[in-house]
Design goal:
Length: 181
Amino acid sequence: MATGAFHMGTALLARLGVGAKLMLLVLLPVAVLLGVTIAGSVSTWRSASSLGDFRRATEQSFVASGLATALADERTAAVLMILRPDAAGLERLRAARADVDAALGEGSRRAAEWKGPVDLRGRWDAVGRQLNAVRVQATSGSLTARASADAYSAVVRDVLRTIRELDAAGPTRLSARAGRA
């Protein structure tokens, strides 16, 4: 009976043997260190994921920038063709349109793989439809040089708005700090 009372009233460490106490003395700091390491790893993983998202958005932004440049070149060629129609101007316009089509195709191909806050598939589809309408009007001769430049500029503004939205999803303070480390 006295033994039962002894076990009930004594502390847990008093009941443990010397070997168990030494094992506990070694394992407790290791367990705490392991917990801190796991917490730090989770934080680093989140930072890396955020940086990866920002990198993918930046890549899409560069593709859109190439499209905007190609559209500006086509706008210039279309206006020059309206002002001075000749064979060289027509060839320049065809080459510019081919460059725009290639850039839009690249953007559409990459948009199929994109997962982010901006609907790139929808944006490139809308740009393609707008561009087709402008091309039809310019080819039919229904646009003046000024109207043609304005119509192309509206398409370019939409592409630039998309670039701005992609770039607005910049890295968070946490991911920027991880990127500097």
